[in-house]
Amino acid sequence: MNHSIYSADRTTHLKIVVVALVAGIAVAGLGISARLNAEPNYTQTAKVIKAGKPIAVTSSGASLVR
Q1: What would the mean pLDDT of 19-24 be, rounded to a whole number?
Q2: Distance between CA 44 and CA 41 in Å, rounded?
């Protein structure tokens, strides 16, 4: 039994890599399936905003403290 990853043999390293790969694929698959089963109202649509009439912005006349 190996208690350290440094002294582990090749098959132990391979098992760790395979388990990590399977876990990563499972998490990615779960995330993709959760996203695909989401509400269909989350689609993105472009909205056009028309410019209004120009306005004049003036100062309020308040004194500034510097």
Answers
A1: 96
A2: 9
Q: What is the DSSP string of the chain?
A: ---SSSS--HHHHHHHHHHHHHHHHHHHHHHHHHHHTS-GGG-------------------PPP--
Report the alpha-carbon distance of residue 33 to residue 25 in Å, rounded.
12
Highest-confidence segment of 35-39, 44-48, 62-66: 44-48
pTM score, whole prediction: 0.49
CB–CB of 39/33 below 8 Å?
Answer: no
Token pair of 19 as six digits: 């388990």
Residue 8: how many other CB atoms lie within 10 Å: 15
- pLDDT of res. 2: 62
